[in-house]
Each structure stands twice: as structure tokens, then as C-alpha cells.
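Q: How would the C-alpha cells look for this protein?
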Amino acid sequence: MLYEARPAAGLSPATVRALAGGLIDFALFFSPRTATIFARLAARAGIAAALRNVTAVSISAAADGALADVEFQARHIAATADQRGLLAALDAIVAKRRGT
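A: Here is the predicted structure in C-alpha cell form.
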């Protein structure tokens, strides 16, 4: 076995505070599995309303689909399903917000 990934049991208190306090603008999702786990943990933490101020950026349509029940400010999907595509999507969103 090269590595083992285990889902988190819950969002950390610091993460919940940061989301609830409006300190996080973007959430990046690298797989459908992580998106599903995040959606479940966010619901469990009771921060659904806070996510309305967060923009989700997903690596693929499948990852974005796992967020269907979460009300984000906006949801974007990378043009290519790799880290470069995900970060390019984030760069484009930030540039648009800055008006550049």
C-alpha cells in the first residue's frame, strides 16, 4: 500500500470559526469523494448559511455534482480535470473579481 486516505471525522473548530466568520472565500475540491465528505461535515457542523459566502471550485463535473445540495455563493468547474486546471480556474475567478 502506498498510502491510505481516511475521511475526517469533522471539520476542525478553527475551520468552522473561519467559515462562520466569513474568512474563507474559496473552497477547492479535488475529487468527488472529498466534495461528498465536505458537504456531509459542513451540514453536521451547522455552517450551511456561511457557505453562501464561499465560492466552490471543483476539479471535475463529478466533484461539483457532489456539492449539489450545498448553497455556495457560486460553483465553478475546472476546464481540465487536473491540479493545473483547478488552479487556472481559481486564478480566472480572482482576476475577474479584481477586474483584471
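The beta strands are 26-29, 55-58, 74-77.

The mean pLDDT is 94.

Upvote if useful.
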